[in-house]
## 1
Amino acid sequence: MSELTVKAEKLDAGDELAAKRTEFVLDGPEGAVYLDGNSLGALPVAVPGRVADVVGRQWGEMRIRSWTESGWWTAPERIGDRIAPLVGAAAGQIVVGDSTSVNVFKALVGAVRLAQENDPGRDEILVDATTFPTDGYIAGSAARMTGCALRPVEPSEAPGALGERTAAVLLNHVDYRTGRLHDLPSLTAAVHAAGAYAVWDLCHSAGALPVGLDEHGVDLAVGCTYKYLNGGPGSPAYLYVRADLQDRFDSPLPGWNSHAEPFGMRSDYTPAEGAVRGRVGTPDILSMLALEAALEVWDGVTVEAVRAKSLALTDFFLECVGEYVPEGRVECLTPLPHEERGSQVALRCADAGPVMQRLIGRGVVGDFRHPDVLRFGFTPLYVGFADVERAARVLAEELG
Ligand SMILES: Cc1ncc(COP(=O)(O)O)c(C=O)c1O
């Protein structure tokens, strides 16, 4: 047994979240190590039975009665309230539905409208220059629609780019490629000091580390539920609108579900109060209720415990990579300071594509991001320290 195998055993023995692993289906090739939960979270054990009930009984037997009797109609707000503590939000501010892309559009146009309401001269949107592409595309379209100019900036340089013309700023809490964690409290404060509105994309942080939306006064936020929240492929995303902004939130996608009187079937639009205002059309109930079942794994878990384990996992992975992989063979893109690190490690090497193919063939599942990045995501609820040691060892063998 190597020193690092012994250390992994010790760390696993002291892991207070270790038992959570049994709440997930992690079958597959023998000994597979799943380090791709930052792309698609693993299946929680409770989900298949719940989906079978929703389909067989709620839809199959109760049919249309389920909109009221099975709580389908209110699911977007109810599940929003279930996600709220995971991102540091009080109840009544999050609604679940649509994709992250669609919610980025709602949030960003909504933020610009808030800014322009009092100051029509605000005609600039700042967007994270390193963002996941969809946010950049949507920000470009939102800018055209609202008569704004779009200015891509590195998140750390956003404070210097802010000014009287800034309407809204769209940033990622954790960078999808490098795993860099941006400083949400200070960047939000800088945006506010300039009189603008901050919109945060939480796709790679929610469920992996504390976000503190209310504490830091974030204006609007969006996130997906299929990564660290394990909601399943294409599970609905969510939209946060801070309570004191909800009355002024003017959604660019007003639908009958966000109407104050959805069954009034009126031709004129009166927005509903509260988080409901972020809804659009009929919710995707099958996916949404699968997500609700998936969120039960959070019972009895604190985000702080998850963060502590996440950092221990990424620290240990970096230690093992340092020990096993020949120096200079990979370059670590993920920052080493804890306050700048999300829950993934990104390693750059020229042959990352074929290397990841071989890793997956050997049961170590991470992913490849064009053109040269190996990404390894660490989901504290089901990844253990022995997994980490094995992943680094197999990686070293494949890197030669
Ligand atoms: C940071 C980030 N934003 C937005 C998206 C887009 O999400 P969706 O495809 O669900 O709209 C993703 C998808 O992975 C993402 O990682």
## 2
Amino acid sequence: MHVTHLSLADFRSYARVEVPLDPGVTAFVGANGQGKTNLVEAVGYLATLGSHRVSSDAPLVRMGAERAVIRAAVTQGERSQLVELELNPGRANRARINRSSQVRPRDVLGIVRTVLFAPEDLALVKGDPGERRRFLDELVTARSPRMAGVRSDYERVLKQRNTLLKSAAMARRHGGRSLDLSTLDVWDQHLAGVGAELLAQRLDLIAVLQPLADKAYGDVAPGGGPVTLDYRSSVGAEAGPARTREELYAQIVEALAAVRKQEIERGVTLVGPHRDDLVLGLRSMPAKGYASHGESWSYALALRLASYELLRGEGNEPVLVLDDVFAELDARRRERLAELVAPAEQVLVTAAVDDDVPGALVGTRYAVTAGEVERV
Ligand SMILES: Nc1ncnc2c1ncn2[C@@H]1O[C@H](COP(=O)(O)OP(=O)(O)O)[C@@H](O)[C@H]1O
Ligand SMILES: [Mg+2]
């Protein structure tokens, strides 16, 4: 798929902007702070309902404005669609497809798909487990948009269960009424139900991503691998032999039972997919803490390239977005990456100067200056 037109109103620094887009490579070039990332961030938002830079919507709305609108015309094969999202911080966001009446924002997922490379990606390798869980869950959702519902159900159940545990912990400390354990049993089952679904999808994803990540690492840094992806589960679930949802459900219920006492003491859910990690191995060592800066970068690139290959292979060719990444790479990695992404259906690149866009990426150029986006 590719985006043929992007239109923003009161998004970030843009009061209004219209950007026609072609398939192939488009580079947005301009000095720092001119609004390049803001453009591709909007495209990414349509694909994930989130920003790769901030966790809440408020900063996405132009200072002083009440709401932001992101609109994109999208072509997939013969089919064209118009998607529109209205961001209302503090209130529900709204969405429309083909100017029809409103749909839920999550119903637009799957129309725009992106794989976004950004300087922030280094945190995939060096950062906290939460970064890697988000990576997995976004990819799980890109493969199967209905997982957005499962993810939000999990968050909701977890929050409610934590509230229950917290009040139990408080009551315990102050000698109040003790927790009705049958209520907790019910929440355990809810958590295990949605948790098993999320876990199954993550494990399936890792199994198919592993060989692609290994190959991509070899492409970016020849001879530098191998890389391994190991899921570290707080409930003892392992990737590999396919687990049924029933088995995973039973594992979560069992793990919850084993930590129940501590949970009631501490007032928080101690096991489940929200406590898991993806261990990125490089030559039999964890990349985090062991890999060099350059290797960590190669690893982050490999994970994104593998994501791209996976989605493409499953018939969902995503838009590749490369936000300011070439400036971070040495000449060799830069050329390699450029060669690898050049054949994609659509590539959106941002760079501070022309020289940061590798020669292999010829295409349309836009100059971005103080919120003006002009074709050059
Ligand atoms: N909500 C907002 N309202 C107004 N301006 C914003 C908002 N969010 C970010 N900006 C401005 O956008 C600019 C950053 O744009 P960005 O796209 O990140 O720049 P770059 O071209 O370096 O990628 C900054 O000058 C910042 O002040
Ligand atoms: Mg930027």
## 3
Amino acid sequence: MTITPFKILLILITILQLPLVSSASALLSSSIVNEDDLSVLEHLKILSSNEFLGRKFASQGSIKSQTYLVSTLCALKVQAFKNKYRHTFTQPGFFQTKQGTNIIAYIPGTQHVNKYIVLSAHYDHLGTKRNTVYNGADDNASGTSALLHYAKLLAKKPLKHSVILLFTDGEEVNLLGAKAFITQQKNILSNIKLNINLDMIAGSKRIKKLHFISRGLPQILSTQSLGELIKLQAHFKTNSSAHLKAGFSNRGGAGTSLKRTNWLMASDHGVFNKAAVPFIYFGVGTHKNYHSEFDDFVNINQNFYLAAIDIIFKQLIYIDTAMNKESIVESVIPSLKKTQR
Ligand SMILES: [Zn+2]
């Protein structure tokens, strides 16, 4: 399905005229992260501690991270994907071939068990440089810990669609883990309806906005549902301390050496996009601690992070419910459907 000017008009009409209907407005109530549930911050603190040595691809720190992820998923009783958590892949090199390891868990859906939503976050980071550990608290212990938190919530209350929790390795080495996943899972690729990728969602102390980009959503949502999602996102712009914002600036943040960033390929969602899988990517963009030794637990914005986890999850819940729903506008006026084809 493509977005025609007519369809854009319909979306605009939907946004302007319709109030949030019950399925979306139900999501505006209390936060999904409550006081006695701060284990998500504990996961982040542990994964970004010196003990994990910066979680570099194919290193001791990586093996420790894998053990932590697998033991947490086991404790949460979240099943392994295709009977194993560790899905390895190789990276041939000039001197030696290295092995990477994606950690993958699976929560079967209650209604559409053979249709998948892939939640992804890379757990690898930069390792150590000149005896300094680059802990990567924001990049990307933040997304990794959020995924562990979602695993806990979804294990208790599964979605309609099956969820694949994909903790990728080698993102910092040219998106290796995501590429391996797409290659290894090509037999189910057409059943992967959506990828939600989290990379850097805790920022620095000064971060104020959670940004997102998406592609392909008209393939999985009706015009009305898409309009409602956009409305929900607009609500989170003003009514959440994560201040959700569509799009990224393509300039580097203050204090970074990056001049321009291609956000479409900035993280694992780029690989899903190339494989024609619709995606939404959430992140704060580059900031002063990005890829520096100061990307530590003490420097993230905790309140912002908890708000980000909350509003991303609510969008996931909305999409899971709205997917496959026939558009009311299109079913009421079948002739409109014909003219769009
Ligand atoms: Zn990252």
## 4
Amino acid sequence: MKSNPRNIAMAALVALAASGAFAAGNHAGGHGHGEAIGKPGVAAKATRTVNVDMTDGMRFKPSSIDVKQGETVRFVVTNSGKLKHELVLGTEKELKEHYEVMKKNPEMEHADPNMVTLAGGETGEIVWQFTKAGKVDFACLQPGHYDAGMKGAVNVSKAVKK
Ligand SMILES: [Cu+2]
């Protein structure tokens, strides 16, 4: 007897565990955005504070922010609405992918240095260093919010050599 029922059950369990780990990894560990958008900043090195307001009108104010390459920015984000909102920095592609995952799992809690999720009335912070010139997008990935236009962009201007 080479394959008894017990071995088959074990194999099924292993397969289940593997698929579960993969699904979790997709979200919790899988943001792998290298340094495409920059990297978590050191608060003490922040050269500027930018206040961003999030509203139930599905808008960020401001929705367009100009920074210089290399700059570390402290975003003080306030949710002035009643709904839960969040600010997530990323490339447009990453944000869209992440949004699809959020739509399928609305109760999912997520927390990474490139995002802040806030209940109505709360204020939080992101400290981020913009290492590359170009555009860094941000969006609220709460289901429905991105579709409603709750997004913006950080325009990173190229550092001038001195
Ligand atoms: Cu929102």
